[in-house]
Amino acid sequence: MPEKQIKSRQRVADHGEVFTSEREVKAMCDLVEQECDRIDSRFLEPACGDGNFLAEVLARKLAIVKKRYGKNSFDYERYSLLAVSSIYGVELLQDNVNTCIERLFKQWEKDYKATCKSSCNDQTKESVRYILSKNILCGNALTMMCVDDNQQDTNTPIIFPEWSLVTSALFKRRDFRLDVLLKANEKPENSRQLNWIEDEDSIYNYLDQNPVTGEYMPKPLREFEPIHYRRLKENG
Ligand SMILES: C[S@@+](CC[C@H](N)C(=O)[O-])C[C@H]1O[C@@H](n2cnc3c(N)ncnc32)[C@H](O)[C@@H]1O
User: Fold this and answer.
1) Residue 69 belongs to some domain of the structure
2) pTM of the predicted structure, to 2 decimals
3) What is the greatest pairwise CA distance in the chain?
4) Using a 6 Å cutoff on CB, does residue 52 contact ligand 1?
5) Domain that holds residue 151
6) Residue 64 domain-assigned?
7) Is the CB of 141 under 6 A from ligand 1?
8) pLDDT for the residue numbered 1
9) For 110-128, how does the pLDDT look when each residue is reduced to its tens digit (9 = 90+)?
């Protein structure tokens, strides 16, 4: 059966909502095949819809996790969480956000069962849900602000956690503003010229300068102590 690429004419007119077909998604992911195959390579889709691209990237990453770590449930568990934690989305419409989160969760759960031949423990499931709730956000990718139920910008900037596996079972989380992450990577001069957030709220408040190279790096808004991957929610 052909996939449904349009939900309604109104949604196309209002939000340009036309979902990409599976064939195109796969072809585009093939263009960045090596990154898709790196378990911790981070992907952000700024208008992610219900997650067509993110689901494909996750499928590719989980296939690598299975190949490398599928024989050991502990390894599969933590590396599959790392794969989930590397996937980010912003979407204007809350129903799409909800569908996307549920879809990625189910995809991970199904893969876990197929690989580990058992259901996953509840704590790990909670952690996967928690990661997805922080990584897939309802927001405006143009202004990089969170939005309300009417798709209007709120005063809250989009903030994403950076997750990393620091020791065998411990995940570290650092939160960053999305606008700062993107602006700080702008060339030339690595944001030196930027004064783009409101005047009194200069970007330099959000950057750290490397004393040796002079380069500016995004400064985390918050850093969390490393915590076991099954207890990620406790850090929230
Ligand atoms: C063309 S669809 C693509 C969806 C998905 N990326 C795909 O390829 O299947 C565009 C999506 O962007 C969302 N969107 C529109 N304006 C947006 C904005 N300013 N910020 C975030 N998402 C937006 C729409 O709701 C819609 O789901």
Assistant:
1) yes
2) 0.93
3) 58
4) yes
5) 9-235
6) yes
7) yes
8) 41
9) 999 999 999 899 999 999 9
Burial class (CB in 10 A: 0-12, 13-18, 19+), 27: exposed
State the distance from the centre of ligand 1 to the C-alpha of 17, rounded, in angstroms: 6
- Residue 1 resides in a domain: no
What residues pair up with 228 in beta bridges, in sequence order? 170
> Closest Cα to atom 8, ligand 1: which residue?
20
Q: pLDDT tens for residues 60-105?
A: 999 999 999 999 999 999 999 999 999 999 999 999 999 999 999 9
- Å from CA of 224 to ligand 1 middle: 31
Looking at the DSSP assignment, which residues form a beta bridge with residue 159? 177
**Residue whose entry in the numeric block shows the structure tokens 């909800």:** 98
How far does the centroid of ligand 1 lie from the alpha carbon of residue 90, in Å? 8
Q: Is residue 40 one of the residues assigned to a domain? A: yes
Domain count, the chain: 1
145 touches ligand 1 (CB under 6 Å): no
Q: Is 137 in the pocket of ligand 1 (CB under 6 A)?
A: no
Structure tokens at 115: 């690989």
